[in-house]
Amino acid sequence: MSFSESMTGMKRTHMCTALTEEHIDEYVTIMGWVQKRRDLGGVIFLDVRDRTGLLQVVVDISSIGDEGFKKSEKIRSEFVIAVKGLVEKRTEETINTNLRTGTIEVRAMELRILSDAETPPFQIEDNSSVREDLRLKYRYLDLRRPDLQKKLMLRSKLTEVVRSFMSEEGFVDLETPMLTKSTPEGARDYLVPSRVNPGNFYALPQSPQIFKQLLMLSGFDKYYQIVKCFRDEDLRADRQPEFTQIDIEMSFVDENDVMNMNERLLAKMFKEVIDVDIALPIKRLTYQEAMDRFGSDKPDLRFGMELVNISDIVKDSDFKVFSGAVSSGGSVRGINAKTCGDMPRRQIDALGEAAVSYGAKGMAWIAITEEGTYKSAITKFLSEETVEAMVRALDGQPGDLLLFCADKNDVVYNTLGNLRLDIAKRLDLLKKDVFDFVWVTDFPLVEWNSEQKRYTAMHHMFTMPKEEDMELMTTDIAKVRSRAYDICLNGNEIGGGSLRIHQREVQERVFEALGFSEEDAYDRFGFLLDAFRFGVPPHGGLAYGLDRIAMLMTGSDSIRDVIAFPKVKDASCPMTSAPGGVEEKQLEELAIRIDKIEL
Fold it and tell me: What's the chain's average pLDDT?
């Protein structure tokens, strides 16, 4: 049975938490959802919620009359109501210090039930422990939770600050197409069939990369856009099939111009949104420095535990695991897990299993007791002098645990870089209220793709190579560095960019080095190469992951918490059941035939 009434003649005067003691003895009208109802016999207390917070409403038969009181007896959680009443000060013993409105309440003089509600499948409360799949199925209810609303309002504030800054800096907000041409390289494209061009497809943009370069060629000098991008890739906590970029491009600039402008933007964002001061200039590491010290090109600098190369110490040892790795062109490196020397053996074994999952063949270790003696399975294969040199290199002290990996460099980096993070979590070193930024520069231009058996662009194929490495393009492309830069925060890449190639001959050399024939290059990027015939300014830019920045600002563990309607791991939406089937007629119009697939 519905109890719904019209709100005609009633107009909300205040949001719930806009009311303070300054409004005492004023008549107000508030509207919202009922968080909780308490019937004390003759008096009913309603906690009313809107997106600003909670306010207590007192429904007393002497103030609202018999009819109004009977109506309030029907109210349950999540009913939507409108209340007109008098703001009063709470008695001393009923003050709630946990509420912003805890010193006042509204005595109802008129009450209307604007919409009734069934019992929700879970309670609307902060920090819900309800399964995520259930919450996402009823996302519209999940979004009523105050903690989620605060996160999304913070995201809104973030975009507001970005737009304000970019306008002040003279950037032009320009849109680029959502339906464009598929240029496969990197993640898979999402494809959209064309009805009027049967058998042909648009692609949803993985980024506006080519278009923003064309905007620079068009003379706009400073472009930005807060834009949706799409990538068909496996999901994880900080990845979604559709995500939002803060996309920026500038003409007549070098790396320092782009990085300095973005440092000012970051400082404004973090100060105005979460009141965090960022020390400028932000520190910089080259890609190789980041890998050598932290085993990652997005290093977390909130703690130490840096990698140490001990290859020279062990290269001539009788322990073939170590010496063999060095002689075959790899390395032996270690990290010092301070204060972990008394870690139980089962936990050390668990770290060894994790090392294997990261690609290593195993993990060696030395535990230093409080008395300064060594517990290890490898010391018997090494001379006393070698062991002492290894311990000194890692600054081993009583109570420390030293972990080692010997293999190809990329395996060693990945293994120790991840073990470093695993141990930091164990030691509670990853503080969410600490924000440690770093620029990573001088990335390799290309990386080897073992599946495709060829080099592919590490960032993208429009990234400018370093001038001093240009001669290596045809002789040893693996050693060519790029003019690319990533901005990282707490072990997360929050933005990446580069100076772009603006010379046609250089772009053609890069295409050739990446295995594209002239015909292939023109088939995919002909419109860009043609445009390069008409005068291109030097230009560069950067794109931020807006969702990821909002996740870090709010201390969330997943970007799903800062996206209103996110997808889950299989890229589906539990609420709408997307993706779903379509009618045969729609497929016919698109000239698409789907053969039955047996699962």
Answer: 94
Name all contacts of 319-326 with Cβ < 8 Å and 24+ positions apart.
Answer: 319/378, 319/381, 319/382, 321/362, 321/364, 321/406, 322/364, 322/382, 322/404, 322/406, 324/406, 325/406, 325/407, 325/408, 326/406
- The 10s digit of each residue's pLDDT in 196-206 is 999 999 999 99
Q: How far is CA 66 from CA 41, 58, 59, 521, in A?
A: 13, 15, 11, 80
The DSSP call for residue 422 is H
Q: Count of CB atoms within 10 A of residue 26's CB? A: 13
Question: CA 557 to CA 238: how far, in whole Å?
Answer: 8
- SS3 (DSSP) at 503: coil
CA distance 111 to 73: 11
> Which region holds residue 311: left if phi is over 0, alpha if psi is between -120 and 50, else beta?
alpha
The tally of CA atoms less than 13 A away on the side-chain side of residue 288 is 7
Residues 6+ apart with CB under 8 A from 393: 308, 310, 313, 334
CA 358, CA 122: separation in Å to the nearest integer? 38
Start-to-end Cα distance in the chain: 44
DSSP 41-89: SSEEEEEEEETTEEEEEEEEHHHHHHHHHHHHHT--TT-EEEEEEEEEE
> Taking the complete model, does pTM exceed 0.90, yes or no?
yes
Average pLDDT over residues 515-528: 82
Phi, psi of 499 (to 5 degrees): -75, 140
**364-368, strands of its sheet edge to edge:** 308-309, 331-337, 401-407, 364-368, 374-375
Residue pLDDT, tens place only, 477-486: 899 999 999 9
**Predicted local distance difference test score (pLDDT) of residue 596:** 64
Write down the pLDDT at residue 185. 60
